[in-house]
Amino acid sequence: MSNKKVKTTEKKQPTRKGEWYVVHTYSGHENKVTATLKQKIKASNLEEKIFDVLVPTLEKIEVREGRKQTVKERIFPGYILVNMILDDISWHIVRSTPGVTSFVGIGNRPTSLSDKEVETILKFSELEAPIYKASFSIGEAIRIIDGPFADFIGTVDEINEEKGKLKALVSIFGRETPVELDFLQVSKL
Fold first, then answer.
1. b/e sequence 41-77, b meaning 16+ C-beta within 10 Å
2. What is the C-alpha separation between 116 and 19, in angstroms, rounded?
3. Cα separations (Å) of 2 from 5, 67, 98, 99, 171?
4. Nearest Cα residue to 49 out of 61, 41, 37, 38
5. How far apart are the first and last CA of the chain?
6. In angstroms, rounded to a whole number, what is the distance separating the alpha carbons of residues 76 and 27?
7. Residues in CB range of 185: below 8 A, 6 or more apart
8. Least buried of 6, 78, 96, 112, by fewest C-beta within 10 Å?
9. How far is CA 31 from the centre of its chain?
10. Could you give the 3-state DSSP secondary structure of residue 37?
11. Helical pair 88-95 and 30-43, crossing angle rounded to 10 deg
């Protein structure tokens, strides 16, 4: 007899899949609307008509006062996504939620997102590596606060948000020299 474990695959019941709709909310109230809507769904026993509510976000690294901070930034400020089977009841529950202004669609008719659109949004919001959020702009004057060029003044020439780096032109011995620096090594003047 061997001690090998045999994987068994359970057949999962196919879940009823609704369509994804975009719902317009007051900007800055997306999380509050999402929480309220989820409570209303549960209280009304509509889990079989409204399956999911989410705020698409993206993790970004922001440099504030020389420190890295991971922040969740909304991809579509003022909008949430709702996966639901659209009928009069589910429409009313979503539409009557405080903070919801309307469904996105043509006229009064909500338009669902295609599977490809939903897939793209979900992949984008689930990116593994956080993106750096640059608070610098090209041509801006900066002071180098760390590293061998500390206390030098330079001008931003290039910005690489993915790596959290920038290239600055620094005057060394009377010549403009390009220097690659981390966002943490510089501050605005």
1. beeeebeebbbebbbbbbebbbbeeeeeeeeeebebe
2. 12
3. 9, 55, 60, 60, 72
4. 41
5. 74
6. 9
7. 144, 145, 146, 147
8. 6
9. 13
10. helix
11. 140
CA distances to 148, 150, 165, 176 from 168, rounded to whole Å, are 14, 13, 10, 9
Tens of each residue's pLDDT in the chain, 189 residues? 444 433 333 333 334 479 999 999 999 999 999 999 999 999 999 999 999 999 998 887 776 666 777 888 898 999 999 999 999 999 999 999 999 999 999 888 899 999 899 988 888 887 766 666 668 899 999 998 888 888 899 999 999 887 888 999 999 888 999 999 988 888 888
Domains of the chain (ranges, CATH numbers): 19-132 (3.30.70.940), 134-188 (2.30.30.30)
Question: Please, what sign has the CA dihedral across residues 118, 123, 126, 132?
Answer: negative
CA distance 178 to 176: 7
Tokens of 184: 């943490």
Phi, psi of 96 (to 5 degrees): -90, 5
